[in-house]
Design goal:
By secondary structure, this protein is an alpha/beta fold. The chain contains 15 helices and 13 strands. It folds into two domains: 217 residues, Aspartate Aminotransferase, domain 2, CATH 3.40.640; 102 residues, Aspartate Aminotransferase, domain 1, CATH 3.90.1150. Helices cover 41% and strands 13% of the residues. Strand 3, helix 8 and strand 4 form a beta-alpha-beta unit. Bound molecules: pyridoxal-5'-phosphate (PLP). Pyridoxal-5'-phosphate binds next to helix 7 and helix 8.
């Protein structure tokens, strides 16, 4: 670990190069050297509310802003920032051997990150490629799978552009066909969802592509069962798990998917620009390289082929490793439970309004930390007035970040979210719907 003076000097130099005021550089030095201590585990047992309040000191979040959209881009805690910043600074000393970056040869730091990640999602280390985000992983899948004109991919009507656009390109360029199931809002049972996929399969379906947790509505889809549908029909399963890591437990081998991509910068609170692609061992040779350089066809290195992307940022991957450590230190089960507890509070409060309905939180199995609701009866898509428009304005007036428009809202609650912040949201909702 760097000593305080050494760190401040380095931060000041780095900051001056970036045009950052010296005071900010020194503050950065203070913050990153002197992380506030973690609350003791015993506090959780005696006073959980205080435990979560004290844990909040691990984030830089401004006290005059409320972030209830930490699902789109997560909030990274100080120990993770520190690990990343220290690596940025120390890497420039060029003490590390040979090639101290990410994007070509594996080095010890990459190995450690991959091993920790593989253990976290129950995969083999050589089934994991480090990439920049779920969008990149989805593109590798869509571009890498061989398909003939007329062959079909089945997806849902609720995919994110980073999920469906790679397939749109493939359809426009190579004539593959895209079919979509319309998901219920909200689903009532796992069987209902699985049945939709089962019925939509055709003899030409080569791939099922779906979000493990849907983007706008936050529905957790029954991934294991959907992958089983694909397998029964001789199709591949490709899962967009952008929102899943850090929000629900993941087990690649148990899920039985062929390909899986995710964005740990969201719920795992890793640095922005970190992602991973899982390629099931038996599928190693079934994906063409997306970005090609040396090793594009070296199947001996298995999924690590897809981390050969040219020079990239190892410091964020060091931060990813630190994010896994932080998450494991707080405790995954404790985190998932807290996320769900807060989301349930939001859901219950929202459902007090007779003109609002949940689009995901019909049952525990369909949501964890995202609460998504819409006006009922639904307003036509694209409606810009009425409905929730005034509530959105009230949120903005309170410096509150939420996803939504007149028709729909999505609230993200993570472990740094404070009950007082949710009170402010209820206040905005009340004011907006009263107006
Ligand atoms: C389901 C889904 N896929 C992909 C993405 C894109 O994520 P990223 O920008 O990290 O690639 C998102 C972002 O919210 C998402 O919700």
């Amino acid at each position: 670990m760097l000593r305080r003076r050494e760190f401040i000097q380095r931060a000041a130099i780095a900051a001056s190069l970036l045009g950052m005021p010296l005071a900010r550089a020194e503050a950065l030095g203070e913050i990153t050297v002197d992380n506030p201590p973690m609350p003791p585990a015993s506090l959780f047992a005696s006073d959980p509310a205080r435990y979560w309040a004290e844990l909040r000191r691990q984030w830089l979040l401004a006290s005059d802003h409320v972030n209830l959209n930490c699902g789109s881009v997560g909030c990274t805690p100080l120990p993770v920032l520190r690990a990343m910043i220290e690596h940025i600074l120390s890497a420039e000393e060029y003490r590390e051997p040979a090639y101290p970056w990410f994007g070509y040869d594996e080095n010890e730091r990459i190995k450690q990150t991959v091993d920790a990640l593989a253990a976290f999602v129950n995969a083999n280390s050589d089934e994991i490629a480090l990439v920049r985000n779920a969008t990149e992983a989805n593109n590798i899948m869509a571009n890498g799978i061989d398909m003939k004109p007329g062959e079909e991919v089945l997806m849902t009507d609720q995919e994110h552009p980073g999920g469906y656009c790679p397939w749109d390109v493939k359809a426009a360029r190579y004539g593959v066909k895209i079919n979509k199931v319309t998901l219920p809002r909200p689903p009532q049972s796992v069987d209902e969802v699985v049945e939709l996929f089962e019925r939509a399969m055709t003899p030409s379906t080569r791939v099922i592509f779906f979000s493990h947790i849907t983007t706008a509505t936050g529905v957790i889809l029954p991934a294991k069962e959907i992958c089983a549908v694909a397998r029964r029909h001789g199709a591949l399963s490709a899962v967009d798990g952008a929102h899943a890591i850090g929000q629900i437990p993941l087990n690649m081998h148990d899920m039985g998917c062929d390909f899986y991509g995710s964005s740990p910068h969201k719920w795992l609170m890793a640095p922005k620009g970190t992602g991973f692609l899982y390629v099931r061992d038996e599928r190693t040779k079934d994906l063409w390289a997306h970005t090609a350089t040396a090793n594009w066809n070296n199947y001996d290195i298995k999924a690590y082929r897809f981390s050969w992307i040219g020079t990239s940022n190892l410091s964020v991957m060091v931060g990813l490793r630190a994010a896994l450590d932080f998450f494991n230190q707080v405790g995954p089960d404790r985190i998932y439970a807290r996320q769900h507890e807060l989301a349930t509070q939001v859901r219950d409060r929202v459902l007090k309004y007779p003109n609002l309905k949940t689009v995901n939180a019909s049952k525990d199995e369909f949501y964890n930390a995202l609460t998504s609701f819409e006006v009922t009866p639904p307003l036509p898509a694209g409606t810009t007035t009425g409905g929730l428009k005034k509530a959105m304005d009230e949120c903005a007036a309170r410096n509150m970040r939420v996803v939504g428009d007149a028709t729909h809202m999505r609230i993200s609650t993570n472990i740094f979210t404070q009950p007082t912040e949710l009170d402010l949201f209820y206040d905005a909702l009340d004011a907006g719907l009263r107006a």
